[in-house]
Amino acid sequence: MKILVLNSGSSSLKFQVFDMAGPELLIGGAAERIGEPDSVPDHASALEEVARRLSEAGIEDDGDSFNAIGHRVVHGGEAFREPCVIDDRVIDTIRELSPLAPLHNPANLLGIEVAKRRWPNVPQVAVFDTAFHQTIPPRAHRYAVPHAWYRSHGVRRYGFHGTSHAYVSKRLAKELDRPLDELNLIVLHLGNGASVTAIANGKSVDTSMGLTPLEGLVMGTRGGDIDPGVLLHMASRAGMAIDEIASSLNHESGLTGLCGAGDMRDILAREAAGDDTARLALEVYVYRIRKYIGAYVAALGRVDAIVFTAGVGENSPDIRERACGKLEALGVSLDDARNRAKTTGARPIHAEGAAVAVWVVPTDEELEIAQQTRDTLPP
Ligand code: ADP
């Protein structure tokens, strides 16, 4: 069985084809800068480019050579707890959820619509970033705001990066050779965007991102947790308009706001060269992670493992060490040689005898989408 995974953004269309027997990635790539003068004019032409690259790779463009298409969809709201086969009703619901993800859901829908036209006979599945977090109980997903905000406007915590948190926790269970539904985990997805999830008996019970991906950890360009009064202050005292505040929160905050750079490698290099703003940015970044670890230990009661994933989590022993430092009282203790070993792949990095295991598990959101797509297809 072969599955085509599509991730349709407003100006890009990323694709991968997996042979599920391995599973093995057969080909992947992206059409970028859709709509710009030097690129394709629209998503339909971008998909034609994808089709051409597939047939060049020997994956015939006859509609029979892959068995299904899995689409990444960012926001499934409360409607989608699981992936589902796409029909007109599903498309309508994804559209109705667009106010919750105005930049993402309409772009995801464009990808679905062009793929349906191009390959009308191939089953298509929507896999939602939010779905894994639909198990979060009300005590953790409700904000203490007027009830009408929730009822009329859907204001609650949804969480994101769900496919990554799901993939990493399943993968760890396999590595430990234990049933996932026996495991309590804290999964730290530290990429450009970052989120941490508390997983009890294999299910998400809390996560740091909220109604939007702005909440929680310090990220490349988003600052995470903030007093909502700050926004009121900047509107009323500094005269900022809603759009300006939104843009600052999404693009000019986080590590970028603190030190002018969002890429962790640059920041670590600057800190090593004695740059004080880089040092401060890292202190704020790591301190936030440690607070969440502490909070989620309290939320879970028992923690079997802390898991690091995504660009920073997989590749930076320094950040892992600082995040786990001085957590001995919680049973967390790293083995320096294991943490710094130049291995790739899933690996334990905790000290022998530590009460809480600490692992690095590389994420693979596209493979997870492919697997969920396969598991969702009617038999
Ligand atoms: P995205 O959220 O865009 O998928 P990634 O998961 O690829 O992002 O993570 C990107 C981040 O990972 C960047 O901040 C980058 O600097 C960081 N990163 C990648 N490799 C390393 C490394 N060896 N050491 C420290 N940070 C790294």
Task: Give the arrangement of secondary structure elements.
Layout: E1 2-8, E2 13-19, E3 24-31, H1 43-56, E4 68-73, E5 84-85, H2 88-96, H3 105-118, E6 124-128, H4 138-141, H5 147-153, H6 162-176, E7 185-190, E8 194-200, E9 203-207, H7 228-236, H8 242-251, H9 254-259, H10 264-272, H11 276-300, E10 305-309, H12 310-315, H13 317-324, H14 336-340, E11 347-348, E12 357-360, H15 365-376
Parallel strand pairs: 1-4, 4-6, 7-10, 10-12
Antiparallel strand pairs: 1-2, 2-3, 5-6, 7-8, 8-9, 11-12
Helix pairs in contact: 1-3, 6-15, 10-11, 11-13
Bound molecules: adenosine-5'-diphosphate (ADP).
Adenosine-5'-diphosphate is lined by residues 191-193, 220, 263-265, 268, 310-312, 315-316.
In brief:
By secondary structure, this protein is α/β, with parallel strands linked by helices. The protein has helices at 43-56, 88-96, 105-118, 138-141, 147-153, 162-176, 228-236, 242-251, 254-259, 264-272, 276-300, 310-315, 317-324, 336-340, 365-376; strands at residues 2-8, 13-19, 24-31, 68-73, 84-85, 124-128, 185-190, 194-200, 203-207, 305-309, 347-348, 357-360.
Describe the structure.
With 379 residues, the protein is of the alpha/beta class. The protein folds into two domains: 127 residues, Nucleotidyltransferase, domain 5 (2-Layer Sandwich), CATH 3.30.420; 188 residues, Nucleotidyltransferase, domain 5, CATH 3.30.420.40. Helices cover 40% and strands 17% of the residues. It is built from 15 helices and twelve strands. The strands form two sheets. Strands 3-2-1-4-6-5 form a six-stranded mixed β-sheet, with helices on both faces. It has a six-stranded mixed β-sheet with strand order 9-8-7-10-12-11, with helices on both faces. A hairpin with a 4-residue loop joins strand 2 and strand 3. Helix 1 packs across helix 3 and helix 11 crosses helix 13. The chain is globular, with a radius of gyration of 21 Å. The model has no long low-confidence stretch (mean pLDDT 96). Adenosine-5'-diphosphate (ADP) binds next to helix 10 and helix 12.
